[in-house]
TrEMBL record:
This is histidine kinase. One of its GO terms (molecular function) is phosphorelay sensor kinase activity. Residues 299-388 form the Histidine kinase/HSP90-like ATPase domain. The chain crosses the membrane at residues 12-28, 109-129, 141-158. PANTHER family: NITRATE/NITRITE SENSOR PROTEIN NARX-RELATED (PTHR24421), NITRATE_NITRITE SENSOR PROTEIN NARQ (PTHR24421:SF10). GO terms for cellular component: membrane. The lineage of its organism: Bacteria, Bacillati, Actinomycetota, Actinomycetes, Streptosporangiales.
Length: 391
């Protein structure tokens, strides 16, 4: 059987308080008594009735935390009778103090004040009903100080409990908020890594596919040219693997990540040269003085050019040419990737998942993206990034 520890402890406390109260009642100094049941100086000699009233006053201590105010009121009745019958001077016994403390420490302010008021009224009633010569003004002052001190100690414990509970609740809320922020950050990081991986894989695989197709066509007629194409495929594959390791390296927990700088606009010449080697004649045009760019805008603009050229390589068709135009204005970065191809996929078939990801990148930095066919044929991908204070 499971034992209610709180009730068990209160029952034991009630027994201890009862034993102490009966001992104090029996061993009370009665040198002022002259004989029998006669009251001398307002004090009556201990007898079985008085001992029974003392025990009855201690019984409610067993339920002091379950029904504090009811237990206090029940305990005040025999204590008031003790004072009225002349067994004591009217000073509340141990049980009354324990019950007053329990009400103050386990209930709200209104109920605690009610318990204090009930104790004071019970004491006043017992003092008025008892022998007038039994107490003095100093006795009443001492009783008032004891009652207020016990009540104040109980309220202090109550407030401390509430404060600690508030601290625990605040810590729990902060922990939940931190966990939610962590989950959101992880989700955002997974989304970012997914976009980066798509851009890297789509670009390099497209280049490798075109180079492999070119090698297959000239393998019999020109083995040397086919070997160059295979070498280019190997180089492109190594670049892809290196970039992928840099991107997913932050996810590794068993070894130090192989981190490296992210590509940016200064890497566009190498990208354009790679596209030329893949079979797409590409030209880079830079207008204006390149200012220092924020890291996010720098990477987003590079990925836009990379995805636009990959799109042209896939769909522009044989003989198509591409032009990358970068315009640096005081408060804007304008990036344009256009080709003159007439691929079989058609203008409506050009945009894919990569361009959708690019749209998210551009919107993240407040830019404007336009994607679509050109009037005279071909396709363009263009983005305008706003820059603050020339950056």
């Amino acid at each position: 059987m499971r034992i209610d520890r709180t009730r068990f402890h209160d029952t034991v406390l009630a027994g201890v308080v009862a034993a102490a109260s009966v001992a104090l009642f029996v061993l009370y100094e009665h040198g002022r008594l002259s004989s029998g049941d006669l009251v001398v100086d307002g004090v009556r000699e201990p007898d079985p009735l008085g001992a029974l009233l003392v025990l009855l006053a201690c019984v409610p201590v067993a339920v002091r935390r379950r029904w504090p105010l009811a237990a206090l009121c029940a305990g005040l009745v025999p204590e008031t009778l003790l004072a009225g019958f002349g067994y004591s001077t009217g000073v509340p016994g141990l049980s009354g103090l324990v019950l007053l403390y329990s009400v103050a420490s386990n209930r709200g302010l209104a109920m605690a004040l009610g318990g204090l008021l009930a104790t004071v009224l019970a004491y006043a009633l017992g003092a008025a009903a008892g022998p007038p010569s039994a107490t003095t003004l100093s006795d009443h002052v001492v009783v008032a100080m004891v009652l207020v001190s016990v009540w104040g100690a109980g309220r202090s414990l109550r407030l401390r409990r509430a404060y600690m509970e508030e601290l625990r609740g605040r810590a729990a809320r902060l922990e939940r908020a931190r966990a939610a922020d962590t989950r959101a950050a992880r989700a955002e990081e997974r989304s970012r890594i997914a976009r980066e991986l798509h851009d890297v894989v789509a670009h390099h695989v497209s280049v490798m596919t075109v180079q492999a197709a070119a090698a297959r066509k000239v393998l019999s007629s020109d083995p040397g040219l086919a070997g160059e194409a295979l070498t280019a495929i190997e180089h492109t594959g190594r670049m892809a693997m290196s970039e992928m390791r840099n991107i997913v390296g932050v996810l590794r927990t068993d070894a130090r990540a192989e981190l490296g700088p992210q590509p940016g606009m200064e890497d566009l010449p190498a990208l354009v040269e790679q596209m030329r080697e893949a079979g797409l004649p590409t030209r880079l045009v830079v207008e204006g003085e390149p200012p220092p760019l924020p890291a996010g805008v720098d990477l987003a603009a590079y990925r836009l050019v990379q995805e636009g050229l990959t799109n042209s390589l896939r769909h522009a068709g044989a003989g198509a040419k591409a032009v990358v135009t970068v315009r640096h204005a005081p408060h804007e970065l304008d990036v344009l990737v256009a080709d003159d191809g007439r691929g079989a996929a058609g203008a409506s078939g050009r945009p894919g998942h990569g361009l959708v990801g690019i749209r998210e990148r551009v919107a993240l930095y407040g830019g404007i993206l336009s994607v679509g066919p050109l009037p005279g044929g071909g396709f363009e991908v263009r983005a305008r990034f706003p820059l603050k204070d020339g950056q």
